[in-house]
Amino acid sequence: MKRFSSLLLLLLILAGFAALSIPALACTAVYVGSEVSADGTILMAKSNDYQDVWGNHVTIVERVENVPGRTMPVDNEATVFAPLPATTYRYTATPWMDSAVAVNGLGKDATICVNEYGVSMIMSITSFSNAKALAADPLIPSGFTEFTAVDLVVCQSKTAREAVEVLCSLLDTYGSSEVNIALIADRTEAWYVEMYNGHQYAAVKLPADKVCAFGNEFSLEYLSDYEDAIVSPQLETLVKDFAVRDKDGRLNLLATYAGQEIVTDYSHMRTWIGHQLLAPTAYAAGYDKTAIYPLCFAPEKKVALTDVMEIMRNRFDGTEYNPDDTGRTDMRVIGTETALSVHIAQIYPDLPAECCCVTWESTGPAIYGVFVPVSNAVTRISEPYARNQSAAVGRVFDTELYPYYRFKELTTLCTEKPFLRSVRDYWRDAEKVMTESMAAILSSLTADKTEAARILTDYCCQAQEAAFADAGVLLNDVRLYNSRNSNSMKNGRNPETHEVLDELKAIPPLPVTLDVSKYALPVTRAMIAAELYRAAGEPQTAGKAAFGDVPADAPYAKAVAWAAENGIVNGYGNGSYGPDDCVTREQLAAILYRYAETRLTELLSESHAANDLVKVSAYAKNAVSWAIPNGILTVDANRNVRPTDAASKSEVAEAIRAVLKLAE
Q1: What are the pLDDT digits (tens) for 51-89?
Q2: Dihedral sign, CA of 240, 241, 242, 248?
Q3: Range of the domain at 234
Q4: Coil, strand, or helix at residue 123?
Q5: Are residues 443 and 530 in the same domain?
Q6: Among 431, 472, 498, 589, which is 20 to 30 Å from 188 by CA?
Q7: Residues 469 and 527 both lie in one domain
Q8: How does 428-459 read in b/e, with b if 16+ C-beta sit within 10 Å?
Q9: Within 13 Å and on the Cβ side, how many CA atoms surround 292?
């Protein structure tokens, strides 16, 4: 991420001031191969970091079929345009809002895009080349830029390799105005691309059994270490006068195009901590500015999606460099309060391309924000996350309507305040539920593309809307808590005499009373039938379910057929079952009551003084009266049974356990 012109950046590098003069150029990236991830997915992450307030949103760019003559800008000033193919592909993106573009005067900067073929691209992790490399092939002021690159490549690429070839072709044709790194992947492979100067680049296919973690610096040494590579025609000949080679004559790209002379603590420390987090034994030693941390290395254990989320929040936790514990200000952490956005692409190799990727979006800083899912199959984005603040609005910091501003302020208020870390803990709990829910959806997705897209869209929007609402509650609580505890007198006082004590006063953690169950995958009527079918040992059924909305090839079809044959489910009485409808608490009671009837000779029930029993539907009254005293349904603190509320995943699990115990 950068803001300076190519000429200014070159002058800064030549003067040795680049790392000092750029206020917040601190993008960090992580790659995890499918063979070393906890669930077999490919993971790519990147923070988009710059010290300003440029809001972003999430959008869907639709496929365009056979419309020749279109172009996209190559440079920031939109003076150079590249032609597009007649057909371009559908993709999700996270560009700046129009209000941000009006202020910064740059391109949209999609940052991360994932298309309908499952091709994902992240750019840019700004890097630096040495003076000799830049002089040999100067940057092109009107050349390719990170702010236009991702859309331009992803909209016309069906595979990761094709995307790399498109990117390299654009560099050959137009040159680059910046020094950058990109990550590109699909279901079968992932690529890493270093762009050194005006026209020189090297792209390598990343191994599936390795990980990468790096700050704003190059790491690629020898091309022969990789299975496949795509390089610029003059990559080696251009640097013949200052090339650095090993004893076997291999060109060392890192030493030649970058070198120790431009290594900065600012970037190198983030590379070090990334290695230490993923391979703590191999990189147990403290930070060493002269150490060469390899691009690819083996992790010590399988890496989970949530591990990557925490890496993107890391502030040198547990080390002597942690600013929150030490007060140090002389280094740049990974998890900053200045991040404009943070993204993780999770690609499932075994899923169809049209639904194989989930982008986990933190709109704003991630350290006190939350990653929410955006599948590449979604047909819409939730209203809050899709909102685009108009250019006419300019710098209006609107926390009421836009997630970016809400999470930005929340993080600004919480950073470096230990008593507000409970906010971060809450988001971790929410992310655990969301990641488990998305995995559950994708593991049982229907083959019907339209239906699969609907299910994924509904859940992604549910999670986004819940996160936006929770952030509003937390922001209000944090504002109030900060105001209540603001006092220039930092020392404690004797509560009886008010005498000032020597020790600093302790502020207790902010109590967070929000419930993460809202992020859980809704339990559907199909799911409850499937759970009971499994509990019964999946017996043979006489035929298909007698409901018009239960396809014969649906994964839950046998379960619904079995439940209907045994009188456990009745449907809605109009020939439909509503398999994707959320199961309500009274429906849950009725279904489990009928299930218990097939297992028990007598069902005991008794009256219960729930305040809202009058709201229970007639068909479910006996079932609810049986379910409450038997611990299958519970009443809340207000003694309400809430019969028409959707049953949560945990409530369904507890209810089924209770019924099975009764039937023992």
Answers
A1: 899 999 999 999 999 999 999 999 988 999 999 999 999
A2: positive
A3: 6-383+391-474
A4: strand
A5: no
A6: 431
A7: no
A8: eebbebbbebbbebbeebbeeeeebbbbbbbb
A9: 15
Beta 491-493 vs 500-504: how paired, if at all?
A: antiparallel
- The yes-or-no verdict on residue 267 having pLDDT over 60 is yes
Question: What pLDDT digit, counting tens, does each position of 206-261 carry?
Answer: 999 999 999 999 999 999 999 999 999 999 999 999 999 999 999 999 999 999 99
Regarding whether 546 and 427 lie in a shared domain, the answer is: no
* Amino acid found at 422: S
Q: Are residues 466 and 530 in the same domain?
A: no
Domain count for the chain: 2
H or E element: which one contains 372? strand 372-375
In a domain, 488, yes or no: no
Cα-Cα-Cα-Cα torsion 71, 72, 74, 76, nearest 10 degrees, comes to 130
307: domain CATH number is 3.60.60.10
Q: Which amino acid is at 197?
A: N
Judgement on whether residues 190 and 47 belong to the same structural domain of the protein: yes
Amino acid at site 620: A
Whether residue 488 is preceded by a cis peptide bond, meaning omega within 30 degrees of 0, is no
Q: Specify whether 250 is located in the same domain as 331.
A: yes
Whether 116 and 376 have beta carbons less than 8 Å apart is answered as: yes
Per-residue CA distances from 315 to 82, 475, 570 (Å): 40, 22, 55
Q: Is residue 490 part of a domain?
A: no
* CA separation for the pair 362, 121 (Å, rounded): 16
How far apart are the C-alpha atoms of 632 and 455, rounded to whole Å? Answer: 28
Boundary (domain end) residue, out of 437, 457, 474: 474
pLDDT digits (tens, 9 = 90+) for 610-621: 778 888 999 999
Instruction: Collect contacts of 36-39 with beta carbons under 8 A, ≥24 apart.
Output: 36/208, 36/209, 36/210, 36/211, 36/298, 36/299, 36/302, 36/303, 37/302, 37/303, 37/304, 37/305, 38/302, 38/303, 38/304, 38/305, 38/307, 39/304, 39/305, 39/439
Which candidate, 146, 156, 153, 139, places its Cα nearest to that of 123? 146
Percentage of residues in the chain having pLDDT higher than 70: 92
What pLDDT, on a 0 to 100 scale, did the predictor assign at position 27?
A: 93
Strand residues in 474-533 grouped as ranges (E):
491-493, 500-504
Domain-located, residue 34? yes
Neighbours of 419 (CB within 10 A): 15
Domain boundary among 446, 474, 502: 474
DSSP string, 139-186: --TTSB-HHHHHHHHHTT-SSHHHHHHHHHHHHHHH-BSS-EEEEEE-
* Residue closest to 656 by CA, chosen among 559, 538, 536, 547: 536
Check if the beta carbon of residue 256 is closer than 8 Å to that of residue 243: yes
167 near 184, Cβ under 8 Å?
yes
The answer as to whether 151 is a domain residue is: yes
What pTM was computed for the model?
A: 0.86
- Based on the fold, state whether residues 460 and 526 are members of the same structural domain: no
* Residue 608: pLDDT band with limits 50, 70, 90: low
Q: Are residues 78 and 149 in the same domain?
A: yes
